[in-house]
Amino acid sequence: MLKSMTGFGRGEGDTSLGRLVVESRSVNHRFCDITIKLPKRLASFETRIKEMIRSEVSRGKIDVTLRLDQTGNGRIQFDIDFQLAEQYYNALKSLSERLHLKGDVTLELLAGVKDLITVKEETFEVDPYWQEVEPILRASLKDMDQMKRMEGESLSKDLEQRVSRIVSELEAIKKQFPSSLNNYLNRLRDRLRSLLNGMEVDFVRFQQELAFWAERTDITEEITRVESHISQLVNLLKMDEPVGRKIEFLIQEIHREVNTISAKANDGEISQRVVEIKGELEKVREQVQNIE
Question: Closest by alpha carbon to 64, among 12, 27, 23?
Fold first, then answer.
């Protein structure tokens, strides 16, 4: 089953660090581009998270956000710069004595001094908490994957219908080409006989040249290759693995072959059917841009 590159997933649960919420988003992208946003205390998990995503996603722009809604076991530390406090205190005392100012240097006054007291989160070993974070992260990625599969199913149905139309047009070309070629050869013979009326012509050589020309305009090989590409494309639509790039390649090859068919056949109706095929191919190409 095809998977879209567009999806959203969410996972949440309680951990020793607090309640963890993980949101995963995926949109179209040619390659696998991963962006992780997570709390500072979980920063060391970034590489592990990216490795997990790459093991499950082949391409797309993936944004994963981890959020701790509670403090949990995390503790806050207050750092006091006592040396700076003493310098401020002595400076204020000297200023008061020098200018004969009234009032004492109080705690409230010192508390407003910038950088005197700083707050930082206590550092701790985070690796033991990975076993609590991992299942919540996997739940988010699984939820996103389910959404991608649902949209992929819709894409698959649309692509199958378009491929069916392409096959129908190709069958019509196969049936039409022999009579189209014979009619063209007959018209060419009649015209040449009229132009060469009264002249001596080596009709054996003339027939040989016509045969050579007919061989150069034969589109049987191109039709066979298109049929082979379409068969591979139909098989890819049924596979449960990333196939977007393979389908893109097949679409390019089919497009190239039908262009050759139109040029070689030199028939108005066949050319019109090729236009219809190319129109469906373009729509398929647009849809494939969203397939993983």
Answer: 23
